[in-house]
Design a protein that fits this description.
The structure is a homodimer. With about 325 residues, chain A is an alpha/beta fold. Chain A is about 45% helix and about 15% strand. Chain A binds a DNA duplex (30 and 30 nucleotides) through helix 2 and helix 4. Chains A, B: Keywords: DNA-binding, Transcription, Transcription regulation.
DNA sequence: CATTTTTAAACAAACGCTTGACTAATCACA
DNA sequence: TGTGATTAGTCAAGCGTTTGTTTAAAAATG
């Protein structure tokens, strides 16, 4: 049996409340009893039962993270950033993965509520109406990570339209005019739709024609990048640049271009998105937009902490800047 | 205020115990009251307080994962595998990262004990004596992941000596005799020392000389692979193959070899370890030993589940097989 | 119809801790 | 020396559940 306050109390000859207060550093005891209590607690190897404590304090010092997929480096790094700050503030992290499925998201919001988490970080899926509604009902302090959300929920993310625009602008500045895009699924607003929007805007603003047939959809994975480029080259082999909505697809693009007997960047330039380590492994190294995943994580946790503590947020929606990484896969023409 | 059993009980006009039993599916109530209880519970949006429940049942349906680093793809994938199975069994996962630091490990074992987790998965560091001792004292069901451990703790891992041997043997079978190694730090027994051992054994068994100056230590990261190869080539530029203890270092090796004006695999063959996605991004693609990270994760969770349920384990130490991935970075000479 | 069995529910204690209210003894000070 | 503060505690309730025991009523049995 685990040792409890009662055990200590009996051994020292005081009541549980006294022991509790002493152990919590409330100065309502004589030097001697304090000393003895600490002594006995140590001897017995007392470890407070946080469950019991939580029941009365109504704080669990635990926050829930609802996230798409841990095996995905992007999310893993976000999670890592979150965990670091959570631990700094003495919060534990319960991680639940959803695969971006609405059903799972709802399930975990409920579960985490039942587990009485002090706060929730939401980094999954498209946040459908059902989730927002449930979140509102459950009244758990929540911060949304890496997702824009119309609600008044606080959030921290990057501006995908703008950053995507920047990547394409960089290609244009290097003299490229026929630029294809490997997109993600547009159902995913953030990394799908918004990046397409940025691409289109950049072309428009520079009087370049947007040709829908040069936008091929992938699934963010390497293989789909290969497939996409094969398709693009079939449609128009005179393109001089490709913008991929993820580094994996960008690397796939490079591989496919080479396989087609063309050279990167001599014949076709490629730029990716994320700054995944994979971008440095390819040959040539893939130019890309570097996302601050870990910062995304820790900023959201810092934010959540403030919300939990009832502090006022100076900004409710934080946009973190990305960085353009110029690398060998892009050349001036 | 959250709605409790009491609220439902009052509204229906029965006692809390009746409501509790009904909601838990214990058939001790009339059809009508049951129906009414369910109805009222739904109307009020009742969600059981798992903290209160845990206090009495002494089960939290939560398991703790102590892991080195979530930002590291290897561990992230292990964690992902764990989470999938945990969720299948309705267990939540509290994840704590340690950076492999003994102090952090001890801190989290204690913390998780206080949080009354039902079980512990340990995938961090070298598991020093202090940890083993604490684990024994706390008496939480524990499974060790990806670490060999002398104790009688159950564990699931790969056989690093054997798999490393296999990689080197593959090079030897391809006619290579002068094989350098980029190792990890030997303090890390599993992926450091053991892989060096496998390398040496393979050489010995094939009557090849082990030359210590051809073993250069890296830190598993890409950059260190580059550095290591530069050093190796300085020491002996007539080597024909390199075995890297990680894919990142392997890719770094390929980059450095190319930079030195040599060709992979024409001049030097390279093989890595892990089958990280990065191995497919490099040119040529990196041959490697594929580790079953996700399986490592889910097997350990399956194992822990059995321990928690008090079932007998048919094997206490599980070794998972790896797979040799033959790719363009190795050629026959 | 009396007695036993079954059913439907109430009662009460317990899980381990925190915390507000109360008490008795000691101390300080005018 | 009497009054008020302070100190060092105790007492008891409560957090939201579960669960063993008891009770009252209904149903079944002989």
């Amino acid at each position: 049996m685990a040792v409890t306050l009662k055990d200590i109390a009996e051994k020292v000859g005081v009541t549980e409340s006294t022991v509790s207060r002493v152990l919590n550093g409330i100065p309502k005891a004589s030097k001697e009893t304090r000393k003895e209590i600490f002594q006995v607690a140590a001897d017995l190897g007392y470890k407070p039962n946080q469950i019991a404590r939580s029941l009365v304090t109504k704080k669990t010092h635990t926050i829930g993270l609802i996230i798409s997929d841990l095996a995905n480096t992007y999310f893993a790094r976000v999670a890592s950033g979150i965990e670091n700050i959570a631990s700094k503030y003495d919060y534990s992290l319960i991680i639940s993965t959803t695969g971006g499925q609405e059903k799972e998201e709802l399930k975990y919001i409920n579960l985490l509520k039942e587990k009485q988490v002090d706060g929730l970080l939401f980094a999954s899926g498209r946040m459908p109406f059902s989730c927002k509604k449930l979140l509102r009902e459950t009244e758990i302090p929540t911060v949304v990570v890496a997702r824009e959300v119309d609600e008044d929920l606080p959030s921290v993310h990057i501006n995908n339209v703008k950053e995507s625009y920047r990547a394409v602008k960089y290609l244009i500045n290097n003299g490229h005019q026929k630029i294809a895009m490997i997109s993600g699924n547009a159902d995913d607003k953030e990394s799908g739709l918004y990046r397409i929007q940025g691409y289109k805007q950049a072309l428009n603003d520079n009087k370049l024609e947007v040709r829908e047939e040069l936008i091929v959809e992938g699934d963010f994975k390497l293989q789909s990048g290969i497939k996409a480029v094969e398709e693009i080259l079939k449609r128009d082999s005179s393109i001089t640049a490709v913008f991929a909505a993820s580094d994996e697809m960008g690397v796939g693009a490079i591989k496919a271009i080479k396989k087609a007997g063309l050279k990167v960047p001599n014949d076709i330039s490629v730029i990716g998105f994320d700054n995944n380590i994979i971008s440095l492994a390819s040959d040539p190294e893939l130019a890309t937009i570097s996302q601050p995943e870990e910062e995304l994580g820790w900023r959201s946790m810092e934010m959540l902490y403030k919300v939990i503590k009832g502090e006022e947020l100076e900004e409710k929606k934080i946009y973190l800047p990305c960085e353009l990484k110029k690398r060998g896969s892009v050349r001036k023409i």
